[in-house]
Amino acid sequence: MTTTTTARVYVGTYAKYNGGSITGKWLDCEDYSDHNAFIGACKALHADEPDPELMFQDYEGPATFYAESAIDPALWDWLELDEDDRELLAVYQEHVDESGDIETARDSYQGTFDSPSDWAADWLESTGSLSEIPETLRNHFDFEAYARDAGFDGYVFARHDGSVWVFSPV
Predict the structure, then answer these.
(1) pLDDT in tens, 80-128
(2) Same domain, yes or no, for 102 and 140?
(3) Which of 119, 123, 91 is nearest to 105 (CA)?
(4) 2 pLDDT higher than 60
(5) Residue 133 and residue 70: Cα distance in Å, rounded?
(6) Are 108 and 158 in contact (CB under 8 A)?
(7) pLDDT tens, 12-46?
């Protein structure tokens, strides 16, 4: 998965399209303060029609915000996020909950690790659970199996950009 953080859309109209034309323009969503300002700009772009029925023919950015006949107003909330939060939300929506929001993603996010077993070792160490195991047995602990069982309990281990992103059940 490649995370695209530019939000642009090509705006035409159904009337032009049905008439054999894809006349329109790419608009950068970041240039508009909110959804209403964006829609106003789209209608101004197609002021040659009395009541333009907007058609969003192509887009750049996260697919969850775009449809052929609508742009989700939540896109402007996404635009306010920094790059790290945009990436976190994209990974969360792809692997955990496609309709999840940034707050839920942040609450669920446990970190990035080289493997699920590395997460398990870190988790057990940071919670103090590993210290409860007698030292003579710690070398025999199966971190891989512990991580596998955590997956059965709702933890998600998502591979992204060479790392394992871990999300806990919320």
Answers:
(1) 999 999 999 999 999 999 888 999 999 999 999 999 999 999 999 999 9
(2) yes
(3) 91
(4) no
(5) 56
(6) no
(7) 999 999 999 999 999 999 999 999 999 999 999 99
Residue 29 backbone class (left: φ over 0; alpha: ψ -120 to 50; beta: rest) = alpha
Residues 105 and 70 in one domain: no
Specify the 3-state DSSP secondary structure of 126: helix
Of the residues 59, 79, 99, the one at which a domain ends: 79
Structure tokens at 34: 């909110």
Which residues are CB-contacts of 125 (< 8 A; sequence separation ≥ 6)?
Answer: 131
Q: Give strand ranges (E) for the chain.
A: 8-13, 25-28, 54-60, 66-67, 70-71, 109-113, 156-160, 163-167
Same domain, 18 and 70: yes
